[in-house]
Design goal:
The chain is of the alpha/beta class. It has 25 helices and 6 strands. A 6-stranded mixed sheet has the order 1-3-2-4-6-5.
Length: about 525
């Protein structure tokens, strides 16, 4: 009794800490490109509208630019869906619609924009409870709820899940809906009622309308049903086929939008195809994905050494899972893990690309890993036949895993930039320099998303001369026109060689580099210059 109370107290404390990390320092990290574009979509605007508006303007204020980051009541949720359909069809509209209503009712500051995904991330806890109940308890593998609380505890303080719970994107919601639809599938299979299958259909629709890669989760579900029940219990297979077909029919309107605008979707995703990495580099990144579920101090190469050790633990967990549980249990976790990752990993290995290097695309797979680890820990912690030293080893391992996760969350919680922010890590430094001046002018032809992201780091008094484009089209005023500004700066995120050559041709100005890129690939590239008339 005392033993059970201690574990409940320990895991309950871990859950409270995980919730605490999700709701602290929401406004501190850089509001990066993807989040700025999210605010643009949610406000009902398109990038094209912003570019057209400012191409006709002269000098504008940060306040005017920020207009496109906050809804003003003139755009509806229909405009939100239209913006996505036109420029981002690969992103279904559910999360964006929710955030649109949130902006109107609660607010649209950086902290409030991130508050919604933090709240949505809490959905994962009851969904995890339900899934583990169906997977581990109802199947008779465990007589108590220890693996349920272990899984919830691991997810609660996972530095990966905490990071994405504080990002104004749909990924924390997708985590919850993936767990929800998987739990609903097992429940429907167990109850075999129309109501339970109807609820599975609903969860499938919610998952598909949250993120497009939920289609891979649905494929994993289909393979599971066919392999386990297809030839022995045709009624279950028939019920599943009807439920899933109905779910895909409800998703069909957005699927048609994606098909019609597939050229735009391909353009938006080109970056995942054009960059090629060595196979050894890809494998290192995959190991990082696994390791960052439990430990992430953003300190290389030390993090990676520990990630390699965690890889051994993950492989052993899946080995024990397959050896010690019935196929109806281990096959679901294997399919959830494999089907959601192999379609991303194999093309990268064969044709090149970076699909599998994006950790957020791997969320269903990472959940599968956490389920396997929870099973391994639960099996050894709850086994009375193990020797005392053996049980103490697994107790110590759990404490180490949880402690490493808590330490990682504590460190990343205080940071202003982390690996999940793919761009704009230098915004804090840029803003600090520009904001210290009395009457600055910032000249930029940066892409819409980058300049909107930077605007969140600038004071309202900063004046901006914009012409968003992908080529060098910045208008440089005469020295006399610049006299009314205390300081003049030029900003360009990731300047290419031709752009820099054009800059060097300018005869009337010299350019002093002030801030360099934050990402590894841009550390030698300036992003902010002081403009000095000659």
């Amino acid at each position: 009794m005392k033993y059970e109370f201690l574990w409940r107290f320990f895991l309950g404390s871990v859950l409270v800490l995980g919730i605490f990390f999700r709701f602290t320092h929401l406004e501190d990290k850089v509001y990066w490109y993807d989040e700025a574009i999210t605010s643009l979509r949610v406000s009902g605007y398109t990038e094209e509208e912003v570019a057209q508006h400012f191409s006709e303007k002269s000098v504008v204020s940060v306040t005017e630019l920020q207009r496109y980051q906050h809804p003003d009541g003139t755009r509806t949720v229909i405009d939100v869906a239209a913006s996505l359909a036109k420029e981002d069809p690969q992103h279904p509209p559910l999360y964006y619609g929710l955030l649109h209503f949130w902006f109107h009712s609660i607010g649209s500051s950086v902290a409030l924009a991130r508050l919604l995904p933090a709240l949505l991330s809490l959905i994962a806890f009851p969904c995890t409870y339900w899934l583990c109940q169906e997977l581990f308890v109802e199947t008779g593998i465990f007589a108590d709820k220890l693996p349920i609380w272990l899984t919830i505890g691991l997810i609660a303080v996972s530095p990966f899940h905490v990071l994405y719970s504080q990002e104004s994107r749909e990924y924390s919601l997708w985590t919850g809906t993936t767990l929800l639809s998987t739990a609903a599938l097992l429940w429907a299979i167990r109850l075999k009622t129309r109501t339970s299958w109807g609820i599975y259909t609903l969860t499938l629709v919610i998952n598909l309308y949250t993120f497009l890669l939920a289609g891979l989760v649905a494929i994993a579900h289909g393979l599971y049903v066919m392999l386990i029940y297809g030839f022995r219990q045709r009624k279950i297979l028939k019920a599943y086929v009807v439920a899933s077909l109905l779910g895909f029919m409800i998703f069909l309107p957005w699927a048609l939008i994606l098909i019609i605008n597939q050229s735009q979707a391909k353009k938006d995703l080109d970056w995942t195809f054009i960059y090629h990495l060595k196979n050894s580099e890809l494998m290192d990144i995959w190991i990082q994905h696994l390791g960052r579920i439990f430990f992430d101090l953003n300190q290389e190469p030390w993090d990676f050494y520990l990630h390699q050790v965690l890889l051994v633990l993950v492989v052993y967990a899946f080995y024990c899972l397959c050896r010690q549980t019935p196929i109806s249990v281990w096959l679901l976790i294997i399919l959830l893990t494999g089907v959601s990752t192999l379609p991303l990993m194999v093309p990268d290995l064969i044709f090149g690309g970076m699909r599998s290097t994006i950790a957020r695309y791997m969320i269903p797979s990472l959940l599968g890993v956490e389920l396997a680890i929870a099973y391994l820990l639960g099996r050894n912690l709850a086994n009375p036949s193990l020797k005392s030293w053996h049980q103490k080893f697994w107790q110590l391992l759990l404490v180490i895993l949880v402690s490493g996760s808590i330490l990682s969350c504590a460190v990343s919680n205080q940071a202003t930039i982390w690996y999940n922010k793919g761009h704009n890590g230098e915004n804090i430094a840029v803003g600090k320099i520009v904001n210290q001046t009395t009457h600055p002018l910032l000249i930029s032809d940066a892409e819409v998303g980058h300049i909107l992201s930077l605007s969140h780091s600038l004071n309202p008094n900063v004046q901006i001369l914009l012409q968003p484009s992908n080529t060098f089209k910045v208008y440089l005023p005469t020295a006399k026109e610049l006299e009314r500004f205390s300081d003049v700066f030029l900003y360009r995120y990731r300047p290419h060689k031709d752009w820099l050559k054009e800059l060097a041709k300018q005869q009337n100005y010299k350019f002093e580099p002030l801030v360099f890129g934050f990402a590894k690939f841009s550390k030698d590239q300036p992003v902010l210059w002081r403009v000095i008339p000659i």
